[in-house]
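chain below, 479 aa
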Amino acid sequence: MNTEQKSSHTSYSLRKIPETHHESGDFSHEKEIDSVKILELSNIIDEWEYELLFSENGFFSLKGKEVENKTTEFCEELNKLINSKISQVKFLLPESREIFFNIKNLKINSLTERMKIYENEQLNNWIIDTYEQSINSSVRRAVLYKNNPGIVKSSYSNAMTVIKLMADKEKWDEFTYSSKISEFKSDFYYALISAFMEEKDILAGAYFEKYKDELDKDKQEEIKKSIDELKNNITAYNWSKELFSYNLSESEKEKEINSVRDKNIKSLINHYVSTFDKMKKKEEDREIKSKNESNWNQIISLMDSEPDKAELYIDYSLKEESKNAKKSYIKDIRNSGVIKTDIQKFLKLLNEAVEDIDNFREKDISDFHADLSGKDFEHVSKIKNLKDKSFQIFKSDYEYIKKEMKNKEIKSQESIYAVIKLCMNFLKWEENIEASSIFERTKLILSIIERYEEPNKSKTKEQDKKGVKNDSIKANTGE
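prediction:
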């Protein structure tokens, strides 16, 4: 090869090789830029998927009917978003747009498929839940209208229709369908019979006899046992009520009860008769209490207006102790004009209240007008009528007062009475006492108690303090 040829070849090579290299570099760079743009758009789809599908309130958080038509709605929104973003992107290579659209379609198709599966699952769950709710509603309606055979029958038919729809929807086989029907019948009649039993209605027995074969074995045994108990209870109750209405003596009642042969029914009769006796006694006590309170109010009023006539208005049909209490009250008021409190009885009443407020509320305290001053009787009545929260505050104060008096060795009934009276005069028992007032209450109680602390005890305490101080001085000086 001559020099000219070499030069020509070299010149060509030098010219062509860089040009080819330059074109290849530009293409690679453009491809890389477009690939990143495609990746960026793909990331937008992924971000959308995360934010709108998997977030707390996203597509896959929707349940039941909420998800209906949401796949179409969400995918249309995604398409709009991507188209908007694509319109803003300038690809360097013409084939890049097509590549992205293929990626986009694959992603959206995959998302749509998953969303459609979820939507169908949720709608299917909603349909089944609605069927089940319809069956439960039919049972509930039958129970509510249990005394209306027409409604009971239509409720039963509606439920059976819904079960058939469920069978078609879920493609039950014959065995499953038959099992579901048996299960429903057992639940339906069990609910009806139980409702009659709750109302102690003897129709429970009639329904059981008619539909017992529809109940599963366990429910059948449970209901039979309950029906037998219900029958025995109704028989015993009616028998006891009739016996009680005769107002027989205890021996006569016992004789009638012993004539019953069935041991279970006899035991129930004894229970009901005892209950009726207690109820009657309670009612009689209430009537006597009301009568006695009314008579006391009348006597107290007359002692203010016409004291000479008061004794004439004593109700002599009441208990002897009530009559004597009124006579004593009239006598003391005539002689001294006031009733002096019997301290022992006053303190005993307060202790009774604290120990058992429920019984104390039922107690007739009106005869204590003869033993307590008007103010003290008012104190006791107020405690008797305190509501639960207020009473608990009183009880806490009272127990604290007693504890501190014991610590201070206040033992005489007169001092104990004086401390409690002063505390009752100054303290109030309300339902909502502020926490800040507790300190003030405690301070007041302690200041009252200190006034009644035994003088000798205070002196002894002071001497003890001095003795301890002197011993300490001696110890420090080495004496």
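The radius of gyration is 47 Å. The chain is about 80% helix and 0% strand.
thats it, cya
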